[in-house]
Every structure is written in structure tokens, then in C-alpha cells.
Fold this sequence. Notes:
With 431 residues, the protein is α+β, with helices and mostly antiparallel strands. The protein has helices spanning 12-31, 37-52, 91-99, 116-122, 157-222, 226-231, 233-265, 278-295, 315-329, 365-369, 386-397; strands at 54-63, 68-75, 85-87, 103-105, 129-135, 141-150, 274-276, 299-303, 311-313, 338-346, 351-358, 401-406, 412-419.
Amino acid sequence: xxxxxxxxxxxxxxxxxxxxxxxxxxxxxxxxxxxxxxxxxxxxxxxxxxxxxxxxxxxxxxxxxxxxxxxxxxxxxxxxxxxxxxxxxxxxxxxxxxxxxxxxxxxxxxxxxxxxxxxxxxxxxxxxxxxxxxxxxxxxxxxxxxxxxxxxxxxxxxxxxxxxxxxxxxxxxxxxxxxxxxxxxxxxxxxxxxxxxxxxxxxxxxxxxxxxxxxxxxxxxxxxxxxxxxxxxxxxxxxxxxxxxxxxxxxxxxxxxxxxxxxxxxxxxxxxxxxxxxxxxxxxxxxxxxxxxxxxxxxxxxxxxxxxxxxxxxxxxxxxxxxxxxxxxxxxxxxxxxxxxxxxxxxxxxxxxxxxxxxxxxxxxxxxxxxxxxxxxxxxxxxxxxxxxxxxxxxxxxxxxxxxxxxxxxxxxxxxxxxxxxxxxxxxxxx
Length: 431
């Protein structure tokens, strides 16, 4: 008797292969339509959840400097905040990252290695979990993909096979996006070098002109008698201040270009610590930005800076940090608003606390939570996110702490805790 083969449509293995092939086609088309890393991660996670029919999931990428896994993207009713970190050798995710081998966990509550702090923070109950490594082709893992709480039944080998394909495509696309970012950085560095050279040539006549103008004004005031000179004292001070602003501005513009280039390269030169009076640094910042703020009908204030003690700091870097904070606050503050730089000494911690507060529009939680993370990017038109990184780098160079308080519609306050002597000890967090 001749055995009649089953129709292809009733062959489970063939159906599964067709399902996987269709899924691969959808995912590959979606992934390779963009080279933006954030979009790639989002597309990957959505595809994984849809194909397996799961409630939630996350993609974590490795930070080799801190040896942590960083939540890059999370989906579900109670997503993990972006920028949340876990040690890369802890939990199921850490085990998969270290071994490079996927894991299916049908009963997470019985796992002895599950990292329960994340569930406790988000109040999410993880029932089952599929975790896969994201890794370079024949290379080390670059992160992990988590798919949580499959809706219909426990995770299966078919789910694992499909997610393995998704994770392989995702890792390849992520590496491609990172290589593109590295190429853009190299192009940016070349461009910054050209800009720095051109800027020096273009600004030199401005600097020389300001010096000639100051010399002419000095001669003019020198020819006045004492009575007339007393009447013009305010004008003389204004001219001296204007010439000083131009000269310092040119010098700081050169420093700024170099600092941005170093930031792009991920390099930091050693800080030059010397006795510093912060009120004088902030005074320079306000003088520089006074007209910009005035045009926007925004008032710049200081509060308590005169009471701060002299401390060791890199004055140039501090200027750049506070310039960034105040300058970034100006476009976020509506007309009639204000920006205040305040400070107070804290002898018990051997530090000073400084804050920059505005009456602006505030930040949504997703922006605030990732502000100082490795993947912080500006949401402003034309923004790069480098300003925030520069501020964080300055604070880190001073062994300090920085945090932000902000709510939409209620303004923003940046807090900086700076030790009196960063060469000895760092201030304690939580002050």
C-alpha cells in the first residue's frame, strides 16, 4: 500500500518554518530601514513581543566602562525606566550575557538567580522569561534581549528558535548603527579641527580690534580732567567690561571647540585644580549671557554665592559647565521667567552645593531619567546632547555629584555637589 504524504499545510514543521521565514522577512525589512540606534532597539523589541505574543520585554546593552547592563528600551504596562542599570554578572540577564547562551525560565519565581530588584522597583510580576544574548557575529555579547510573560502557555523551543533569529538580526543591525555613529564621529572630529583653525583666523581681527578700541578709549579717558572723569566712571567700567568679555569670549570659544572635540572622542584631559571663587565664575557666565537673556525677557539672578568659600577647582571647566546649564535653560524659560544660580556651603560634607533653577517648562520623566546616561541625546531641534555630557564630565572630574529635579510645567533645578578639595575625597551622595 502506497503511503500518501500529508499536505504541506498540515505539516507542523513546515508550518513552523514558514512562520519563521515570514517573521524574518518582516523583521529584516523593519530593521534595515533605519540606522538610528534607538529606533533599531525599539523595532527589535516590538517585533519580539509580537511574534511570541508576550506582555513585556526589554533590551539591555553593555556598558564596558561600568561593567553594567543598561536598559536601553522597555515595553509593557510597567516598563523599566531607560538608563536603569544592573551589574552584568547578576540575574538571569547577567548569566546569559556572561555565557552567551539563551535561557528559557518557565517559573521565574522559583529561579535562584533572578534579579528581583527590577520587579520590586516597577511593581511588575515576571512569571516566565526568555533571555537571549545580543552578540557580534562570532564575537562577544553586546547585550541581552528579554521577553517576559508569554500570554498563551509557557515558552517553547519554537519561541526560542524564532527569538534567536530576531536577536541575531538585531545584533547585526545594532553593530551597523554603531559603526555608522563611529564614522560620523570621525567626520565630526575632522570638521571640528577645520572649524577650530578657521575660527582662530576669523576671530583674531576681532580680538585685535577690541584691543585697539580699548587703547583708544583709555587714551580718551586719560585726557579728561578729574571732574569730567568722575562723571564718566560708569562708561569707563562698561568699556573695560566689554573689552574683557570679548577677550575672554575668544579664548573660551577656542576652549569650547577643543572640549567638544574631546567629548566626541571620549577623551578628557587632566583637570587643572587651583584656588577658585565660584561667585566670580558665575559672574562671568551671567555677563556673557546677560544680553541673550534680556532679549528673551528672562532675568538672571544669583543667590548666596558670596558666602561660598574658596575651593580647589578647574575654573575653565566650571565656567563651561555653568555656561551650558544657564544657556540651555534660556530657551526653556518663557518670557517673564527667571534663572537663578545659588549656592550654600556644607562644612559637614566638605563640599558646596550649587543649583541652577529655572521657571521653565520642565522635563517629562523619560527625558529626566536618561539625562546623564550614556545614551543621553538632545530632543531640541539641532541639539546633540553633548552639552549635558560636558556638564557631567566636568562634575566627574571634580569628584562631585549632579542630579536634576524637574516636572512638566514646574521648571527644572540642577543640583551640583562639589568637594572643597577634589584631590582628597568625594562628597557623599544624598545630601
